[in-house]
Amino acid sequence: MLTIFEFSQQIALYRKEKKYPEVLTYFRENKGGFAKEQIRNNEYIVSDMITCLRNANHLDAGFQFLNIYGIEINEEQKERILSAYGWLLWAKYKAENDNNGNSATEDHYFDIDDEETEVGDFELNKSELLDKVETLIPILNSLNSDFIKTLSSNLFTIVLKTEKKKPTPNWKLVNEFCNTIDRDKLSKDCSTIKVERKGQQKDMELASDYENWYAYKTKALMKLGDWKACFDLSKEALEKIEIFHYSNDVWFSRRIALSKRNLGNTEDTIQELQNILKKKREWFIQKELAELYFEKGNIETALKHSTDAMNNFGPLEFKVDLLYLLGKILKQQNKLELSFQHFSLSKLIRQREEWKLPEKLIVEFNSFTFSEISQTDLKKLKNELQTYWDGFRAPQTQTYDRSRTFERSKTGSDPINKGEIIKILHDNERGKVGFLKSNNKEFYFSVHPNSINISKIKIGSKVVFEIKPSTDKRKEQARITNVIE
Length: 485
Hints:
Helix content is 51%, strand content 11%. It contains 19 helices and seven strands. α2 packs across α4, α6 packs antiparallel against α7 and α7 runs antiparallel to α8 (146-164).
């Protein structure tokens, strides 16, 4: 007669040999010889069965197994079972959210802050699966093995990454999830991965869970408009984190500055944003400075920062609010036609991308008597305004000869830029970014997540694109205008 020890040994042998279907068949054929209590009390059988069900992709059956044998997940449970259950939970969360990332590492080094601070009408609606993760992580954090720490890190990261990669992240959920995690118990260790840079493999250090907690939590607070808490935690992050990754020190500083602005301290905000701009010359920081100067009535400085932002690296469709701001500035200067053109370009881009027109833009149009500019004139309007923005460039960046690289159209006027997608760097809630190749030259591109072409952008896709001149020693960037079927 088969003993429980022999039963356990055979299951363990199959598991080590990765014969997962054989494990399931063997268990089904022999389980009747044992009481449920015998199986429930054998940590090796329980953990091996959960592991095999996970690796055989029978995730729901793994949870059913736990339920059938009355296996509870709490502080008293054996570490081996908690570990197996945690990885089952990780796999289920990953599968349900269609997260194709490699645990805690993928895409973090492409992570940047963004310019948006508006908050959607989020519902919390935590799933049962997320509740299980929130319950398990504190239990795991009370244990001390490296293997358990890795599991805890993966669970922590996959929840945050999954939510952040959604087209409309639920920042209330991110905020509440961070609240369930004791940051002081999170690991401060930084792992290293290999990345390719200019054809060479290089080591890249990733942020610790401790740093990531501050990054996600403060961003959630910013998105939710909880400015006092955002200010306090961002300041705490700068004080407590010793080494920063992904320019997090810059983004924490920016959140402090934006918090001060929304708490009524404009002068400090201007000074801090100017300091940040010296470290991170991003167009949306220039836009924020322009807004502040506009609010103070310093129109000329607001115009300078706005045009600097327009000429800075970044897709035009991301800058629809900047176009609106330029329209307001030019209207204040009584340059009504230019103002109307900027409002119109903001509107036409939104309509092309099928985005909702904000009420503030509709109100502005009601104050003009100019004829409406049609969608068919979008390219012409953009070219006219590009000439206007170019007038604000430093002399050395005003000239740009595209004819040396690209063929001309049959009319001899507009350049026809054609290329092929050769690399996708990342694909998430911000859209897709990567490289395309044309005439043996590579160009960086980014596509907004709401673009009509987003689903067609894949490696090997043939595309038509425009190219923006390089500024501030940045590389030229391509803007994909069409995908060739």
